Amino acid sequence: MFMVATLAAAAVSLSATRVSAQATRADEAEQARQEKAQSLEPHHRSAVERLLFTLEDDLLLERLLEPPRGLHLRLGGIGEGSGFGVGPAVRYNVPQFDVKASAAYSMKKYAIGEAAIRFPGTIGQNDYIRRRGPYVELYGRWRDAPQEDFFGLGPNSVLANRTNFAITDTLGRVTGGYQRGKFTGGVELGYLDVSTGAGEDPRMPSTDTVFPATALPGFEARPSFLIIEPFIHYATRDRARSKRSGGEYRLSAAQYDDRTTQNSFRRWDADLRQYIGFQKDTRSIALRAWAAGTTADEGNAVPFYLQPALGGPSGLRGYRSFRFRDRSALLLQAEYRWRINEFVSGALFYDTGAVAPTLRDLGRLERNYGFGLRAGGRMGSAFRLDFALGGREGRRYLLRFDDAF
Amino acid sequence: MRSKRAVWFVAVIAGGVIGAGSLTAQSPQPRQGGPLDSPSAVKQFRSDDPLAVDNDSVADASSVKEVELSEGFDLLVNQFGSPGDRTARRAVNVNTIDEVPNSSWFTNRIGVRDLTIAEIVRGANTFEPAEARNWQEWTIVGGKGFGGFQPGFRAERPGDPGRVYQLEVDPRLHPRLSTGAEFIGTLVYHAAGYNVEDFYLIKVRPENLTISDKATIKDPSGERKYTTRDLANVLSVAATDAEGYVYLSAQRRTDGDDLGHFQYHGTRSDDPNDIYPHEHRRELRGNRVFGAWLNHDDSRALNTRNVRIKAGGRNYVRHYMHDFGAILGSGTRFPDPAISNHEYFIEQGASVRQLFTLGLSTPKPLRTDGPDDMPPSVGWFESTTFEPELWKANYPNTAFLNLRPDDAFWAARLVSRFSDEAIQAMVGSAGYDDPVAAAYLARTLIERRDKIARVWLNGVNPIVDVTLSPTGVLAFTNAAVQARVASHGTYTISWGRFDNSAGTVSEVSVERQTEPRGAVPASLMVGHGYITVTIWSQHAEQPGWSQPVRVFFRNDAAGWTTVGLDRLTSGPAAPSQ
Q: Do the beta carbons of residue B560 and residue B495 sit within 8 Å?
């Protein structure tokens, strides 16, 4: 009889513990609790859990890398092609002002020291909080780049001519600006002192041994520039990192007035970025158009190291950093980004661009395409791995701790 | 919700390894019964069955220490590991009539009686929610600290001296997106039976917020004085109404020692009263159903609280559901992304598919256009693409994964007990100034409730409230019919005598009914003891009803008492009459 068979064995719900038929259900549960009370143990956390909790609870990563105040670590940011750099940094941030100073040294012997003070401070600012009103920033920087790549000027430079040179610059700058919502505008006034010399990379010749002085405007000089650069910036993008919708547009025009040699020039930059999200913002198209031009004053030349350059992780990713330099440049980039999961997204990208004496002279555009993976979350990418293919000079793999654009 | 930055950090580590390791993509489908549903033990009722109260304050819990959990570890262990016991078994804390007794975890409310609208909208609150509208003066005593994704601060008010409230704001363009959602979630969970904390909705003018001289805030560089700038930073992102009032929520901390969080698996080794593995507690398994109803994708250990209560000279731990700021369409600081509640943060299959199809393999919710009228105060919360059984939290937990049809039925029945009027009243009390938002939200909650009822009340034989009158009339209710998600079918009823000592049944007779009633054979009405009735429900459109419900009655001085109910998930076929 099925009923006898099944009923005889139905599970008793409240406890697997068998007690006598006389015990009540409550007695049974109480007995189990009193037994447990005799053998209590402290809650155990594994070493991994303790470590993660400490990292989270004390905000150690933030404290180590980006605290609002105090000594911390600086990672990278020395400049394109500098290799991995690290150094000490200090920051003090109060409502009235921000002060920060840092230094770093890279595996390729690049060095930087910089300091800034900004009034009023940016404490608590984030993507949701944009300051209104005027601000002033004083900024100073010294940088030494002993092995910056140079392949020759113009669109027809060749990879085989890869050389390197040393450049040291000192920059002092005052920025006065005004922010209102999505708009920022202002003027930068600066002083830039530059010196160049023989490159120190033993794998290739120094630039001055391969290229004649006529092909290296500004190389032998030691110009000192007074710079005035008005700019406007308008940002409608949805967030500061890993943007999915909106736009970001920056226009600037600078006058570099050489006080010591014949290298005065003007430069303009236009950087236009548009992000189009779709499918509930899990996919997006990111577009970028960047153009820059320089014009030397009468009887002057634009130093080659201050000319617009293409190549590297933020430009033509299929080419080395600074692969192309000339007085004007155009870069067009497109990325299709899609969500793989909450922490990883993919990207297909296409970069094209060229340098030329003027934008009217632009000829063949260099191009590459590629595939990328970005790790991070809703608040931004932590790092990206880009595989650039299709360039004339082979494949390139890039690991970066920033957004492409 | 605590800061997502830490989660983000862990995720970065984990995120790079998509497709590698044992990325968990566990099925959210309710688990069918397993070995413990099969005959293995003799049923024997005790004199106090069915237990109405599980007295889990019986042992002194003074020794329980506060344990804060790591967000990242909780994500890792639940996403990539397999914590707790995945054995397919009946929930272990249900009583013999398949219900959850009252305990420090759960108090039966809407499941056992009709709550008035006033009771539902009052919730667990010490003060009348309407009274909170007059709370205009606040003194800030500190920042929120690291924990918490939603901007806010801690404050006291003159009318409740010494009591600290946590005040949080809504995103500027989304008034009541988060605070309104949290208010509704708090009411729902309380009415259902869970423990929640006092939670109020207020609107305050900025000039009525003053900062205590002793107020401090902790940031990555350490603790410092709380400044007007800190307050300005919070207010600058806050939604305000046309008259400049800031939309705020005020959570009043519960009396007792904060002991951290409970997990959705295991037991606390230092709590003597915590003897049932959390993954086998019905109210925690069933929380997945509430999660589905309310889009509570952030339902995880970090959004629970353990509080030590001192009562009657003894200490015990009370367990709270906490922080509903990311439910409904809210992501606290912004509307929740549409993909939320449809996928875990990481799923192996979906990730690989997305990776290799370059995103052209689009998950269904992303293919479907949502309603056009989702108001800013609501965010992405809809019923069109909602499929209750496919709902997912941000990452799995073992209690949710252990959900069986009988657990889901239990919770769905509670959900179905929220009337249209109750839902409209809860939404109406949630401070939405936009009537379109309130109407949309109430309508969506009702539609989602009905979908839940349709799926999970029909997932098992939905027989409930089985009684036997002194004159031998059997009466029962079909919960699916009661919830208007099914019509009556036919019922095959088999009667027998139950020997409680031996645990055996002697079958007596079988009858068939088209109404939810029956009549006990006269021979069984004689004398004291137990009788049993097994009920099969048959309906061509409801295959989930096919398994029988077996009910036991004890005849004692009070008459026939229902002492047992087994909702079998693998029972025999109905006998022929």
A: no
